[in-house]
Amino acid sequence: MAPEKKQVLLFTTYKFREGTNLSVRRGIQLASKLTTGDAIRLQSREGGEQRKAIVTGLKVKRFRDIREQDLAVEHDPQCRSWNDLFATLKKLYDDFDEMEIVTMVYFTLEEGE
């Protein structure tokens, strides 16, 4: 049997914190594909090297219900407030609104990454 392919998360801003990181993703697709403890790969939308990470948590909620304190570990320093993250998601998805369901993917980079 072939080894299972790891989920690849693409990032417009390819910056990460030490320790726990958060990426907020539109929809629930990742919530149905990932579980805590899964190994994932991170890659810039522009391509290049992938980095390894481990999923440390998942939450599904309406975007409007995300609290400011949830965003303290957002991987992108420009998205650590609700308004800034909302503006970024509006740039990525013209029709994005605060009632959307999103998946909050918490992860840590694997050692040596």
Rg calc: 14 Å
Through-space gap between termini? 28 Å
Largest sheet: 5 strands, mixed
**Which whole number gives the mean pLDDT?**
93
Shape: globular
Strand content: 25-35%
Runs in which pLDDT lies below 50 for 5 or more consecutive residues are none
Structural class: alpha+beta
Could you spell the SSE succession in H and E letters?
EEHEEHE
Number of strands: 5
Q: Looking at the chains present, what oligomeric state does this protein adopt?
A: single chain
**Number of distinct helices:** 2
Helix content: 10-25%
Strand order of the largest sheet: 1-3-4-5-2
Q: What can you tell me about this protein's structure?
A:
The protein is α+β, with helices and mostly antiparallel strands. It has a domain at 15-37 and 54-109. It has helices at residues 29-33, 82-92; strands spanning 7-11, 20-26, 39-44, 51-62, 101-109. The protein has two helices and five strands. Strand 3 and strand 4 form a beta hairpin. The model has no long low-confidence stretch (mean pLDDT 93). Helix content is 14%, strand content 35%. The protein has a five-stranded mixed sheet. The longest helix is centred in the last third of the chain and has 11 residues, at 82-92.
